[in-house]
Amino acid sequence: MTRLGLGCMRLSSVGGPTRAEAIAVIHLALDSGVRLLDTADVYGPSARDIGHNERLVGEALDQWAGDRGEVTVVSKGGLTRRGAGRWLADGRAKHLTAACEASAQRLGAPIDLYLLHALDPQRELSTSVRALAKLQDRGLVRRVGVSNVRLDQLREAREHAEISAVEVGLWPLDRGAIRTGVVGYCADEGIQLIAHSPFGGPKRTRGLARHPVLATLADQRGVSVHALVLAWLLSLSDNLWPIPGPTRLETARDLGVARELELTQDERARLEAAFPAARILTTPIAARRPPDHADGEVVLIMGMPASGKTTQVRDFVDRGYLRLNRDDAGGNLADLAPILDQSLASGRRRVVLDNTYPRRSSRNLMIETAWAHGVPVRCVWIDTSLEDAQVNACQRMLERHGQVLGPEEMKRANRSDPNSFPPRAQLHFRAVFEAPTLDEGFVAVDVRPFVRRAASGQARAVFVDPGQLEAAHEGPLADHIAQGYLVLGIGWRPEGAPGPDSVWLGDIEIPTLWCTHPPGPIGCWCRKPLPGLAVALVEAHGLDPVACRVWGRGAAERGLAERLGARFEPLESVFAGSVSTVEL
Ligand SMILES: NC(=O)c1ccc[n+]([C@@H]2O[C@H](COP(=O)([O-])OP(=O)(O)OC[C@H]3O[C@@H](n4cnc5c(N)ncnc54)[C@H](OP(=O)(O)O)[C@@H]3O)[C@@H](O)[C@H]2O)c1
């Protein structure tokens, strides 16, 4: 018996082994002591072959001479397949129930361990996890778990079901996997951790084999790099179950080799030096974390792009902190770790890191780097809403470029100006964001809500969409003009050519800015509810946005008003009738 499992996915893939070869691989693994087989309903050569891999596993077990009762079969539900290569999440209770019933038919009930394959961003996690708990109550599955989760999601899942296993990707060259906190948390909580893709999958295995430290150590022991990696992963934690996916007898033989391979202390130390994230699993936190009052401080300032971090950073720089920022240093967030390392090694004791750090794993890298120099870390989280950060992004673009850039201009500008980014940069941050918590090892987490400075302008305006106006709106608009409001237009002409600079509604001239970008996912800052054009009008006319009004028919105008802090007024409420549409 070994903690090594066999990942069976690729035994059912296009170009993979024949059925007989695949069954021989499974038998070799079982004969080498493997007692865990990983499958899923969606593993198969094509979208039409749901259940292919489960049937293969069932057949191999039926034909195996050993004791089937000793083998744990792990299956998963919660994904569907569409066409070549498209795997879509479906976390509805209805789908999971039907999928599990079908898997149980193929594998025999109860399934030993059933996992939610991936989280469905369209559903509440609780819906999917409760569905798993019900399957367990019905006796269709013995144990349940989740796959491909972040730590906050795992914690949430545990509120709705007894999660006894977690499956995540874990391979030596991936800096993120251990740093997410999931692996250590599972070790602490006694949750089985199944490590999928331990070689990084077929595309990365060759890179792994060329790694100098791995290659040298494997050579010295006369084993393959793959066997060495498996033996090392096994040594990192008692609850860790690596499930490599060999598809040939030659490669599957390494399961038996890895099982027998005991690494020496020296070998483990050399591996840990090459892959320092492993230290998180092998060395208790008390031995890694410096006392909170130790000399020096690294302050990690984090928040969404354009959340207002720079303003906070200035204060630290004025107090003598060294500022490290990805935009200045170039590269990605992880590339700052060696720079922090060098700065602390050269004697700097106060450093402020000014970056987005949306993920726990990106923050962990900096925390552990600082700790290696005995320096504690504090987190300052600039908690700015997406809406406020969008306004900030547009204001910055106007300051730097004198205009709100379109998607193509943005791409060009972004090469030299990291502050000119498309709206999806902030959406991405929000999608992957994990709120910082003290248990990451921070001395403190200071949450600083974003506060917008009062506008310098005093004028006020009614923002309208000329395409929504009717002739009879002229009266209410004239009333507003009489009260000192400007009337300004924000229009959308997805045909590519802007409309006129001014639109006339009777005697009222409405200076108008146009978004000319096509429908579909928002790629520009100017399509409502994004505030690019409104921010440009605020600047151009010296407006106080809070004193402005946004007239409109729907969610886009309501959202725009929210971003500006202006008042939204539904068009029906300013004028109840309907006359002819305005000529543009
Ligand atoms: N939960 C999830 O979302 C999830 C995601 C991905 C994978 N998984 C599970 O994890 C399993 C493993 O994942 P994976 O297949 O992507 O990754 P992997 O095991 O890291 O990589 C598979 C590749 O490694 C090669 N390989 C395996 N053993 C080798 C050896 N001893 N020497 C040289 N090359 C070797 C295989 O080559 P050959 O084909 O030549 O043997 C194949 O190209 C899957 O089968 C699946 O069950 C789960």
Secondary structure: elements and pairs:
Layout: E1 6-7, H1 19-31, E2 36-38, H2 52-63, E3 72-77, E4 79-82, E5 86-89, H3 93-107, E6 111-116, H4 125-137, E7 141-147, H5 151-158, E8 163-169, H6 176-179, H7 182-189, E9 192-196, H8 202-210, H9 212-221, H10 225-236, E10 240-243, H11 249-260, H12 265-274, H13 279-282, H14 285-288, E11 297-302, H15 309-318, E12 322-324, H16 326-329, H17 336-345, E13 350-354, H18 360-371, E14 377-383, H19 386-401, H20 407-414, H21 423-432, E15 445-449, E16 460-464, H22 474-482, E17 485-492, E18 502-505, E19 508-515, H23 532-541, E20 549-552, H24 555-564, E21 567-570, H25 571-574
NADP nicotinamide-adenine-dinucleotide phosphate binds at residues 7-10, 38, 117, 147-148, 167, 196-202, 205, 224, 226, 243-248, 251, 254.
3D structure, described in words:
The protein has 584 residues and is an alpha/beta fold. The chain folds into three domains: 6-198 and 239-246, NADP-dependent oxidoreductase domain (TIM Barrel), CATH 3.20.20; 293-449, P-loop containing nucleotide triphosphate hydrolases (Rossmann fold), CATH 3.40.50.300; 460-574, HAD superfamily/HAD-like (Rossmann fold, 3-Layer(aba) Sandwich), CATH 3.40.50.1000. Helix content is 41%, strand content 18%. The protein is built from 25 helices and 21 strands. The strands form four sheets. Strands 1-2-3-6-7-8-9-10 form an eight-stranded parallel sheet. A six-stranded mixed sheet has the order 18-19-17-16-20-21, sandwiched between helices. Strand 7, helix 5 and strand 8 form a beta-alpha-beta unit. Helix 1 runs parallel beside helix 11 and helix 10 crosses helix 11. 41% of the residues are buried. The model is unreliable at 576-584 (pLDDT under 50). The structure holds NADP nicotinamide-adenine-dinucleotide phosphate (NAP). Residues 7-10, 38, 117, 147-148, 167, 196-202, 205, 224, 226, 243-248, 251, 254 line the site of NADP nicotinamide-adenine-dinucleotide phosphate. NADP nicotinamide-adenine-dinucleotide phosphate (NAP) binds next to helix 8 and helix 11.
